[in-house]
Amino acid sequence: MIYSFKGFIPVVHESSFVHPLAAVIGNVIIGKNCYIGPGAAIRGDWGEIILEDGVNVQENCTVHMFPGKSITLKESAHVGHGAVIHGANLGRNCLIGMNSVIMDDALIGDECIVGAMAFVKANTVFEKRQLIVGNPAKAIKEVSDEMMAWKTKGTQLYQQLPTDCHETMREVEPLRAIPKNRPEQEAFYNTLNEFLKNDA
């Protein structure tokens, strides 16, 4: 669902996919090859929200801010299921873990990884390539090249997903029985531990 608000109409590049069960409101600009999952709310009612190219905001995420702010999720930022971004800026190719909360005027640097369920306090600044965990969140080490390669590969899947959704996703009636010729799905992406083990 795309809504205008006080004269602001969201701008969404045609290559991006906004699920019909997501809500994009007002002063929102979404670049190329972005994915917005069902249940996500991107509320540009009180300020500007910019998603640069290749950003994904997954299911049940919230992006919002206090009045008069402008925030940017830079190119290839990856916002995991259920995360809240409230008035914070995200650096290029960063990963925000599931159910994390990033508060007002925080800055997550380029290529940072924020662990699941982390709480980043307002006004906190993390420099690039930090692994950030906990409540309150702290940087515990630098993100390795191997971890960043895994993250980047995962984000590339989400950058392909808009095309796949446009080409193949359709509203349908459910089947009432499992068909004999039901296809199998390929395991084409591993957890970080599996990735590091197989890459060694």
Describe the structure.
The protein is 16% helix and 33% strand. By secondary structure, the chain is of the alpha/beta class. A hairpin with a 2-residue loop joins strand 19 and strand 20. The longest helix has 24 residues. The protein is globular and about 55 Å long. The mean pLDDT is 95.
Keywords, please?
200 residues, 9-stranded parallel sheet, 8-stranded mixed sheet, 2 helices
Topology:
Blueprint: E1 2-3, E2 11-12, E3 17-18, E4 23-30, E5 35-36, E6 41-51, E7 56-57, E8 62-64, E9 70-73, E10 78-79, E11 84-86, E12 89-90, E13 95-96, E14 101-102, E15 107-108, E16 113-114, E17 119-120, E18 125-126, E19 130-134, E20 137-142, H1 145-168, H2 192-199
Parallel strand pairs: 1-4, 2-4, 3-5, 4-6, 5-7, 6-8, 6-9, 7-10, 8-11, 10-13, 11-14, 12-15, 13-16, 14-17, 15-18, 16-19
Antiparallel strand pairs: 19-20
GO molecular function: transferase activity
Organism: Pseudofulvibacter geojedonensis
Keywords: Transferase
Order of helices and strands: EEEEEEEEEEEEEEEEEEEEHH
| Terminal residue distance | 44 Å
| Average of per-residue pLDDT values | 95
Please identify the structural class as seen in this structure. alpha/beta
For the secondary structure, the number of strands is 20
Shape: globular
Q: How big is the Rg?
A: 17 Å
Q: Let me know the largest β-sheet.
A: 9 strands, parallel
Low-confidence stretches: none
The helicity comes to 10-25%
What portion of the residues fall into strands of 2 or more residues?
25-35%
Helices, by number, come to 2
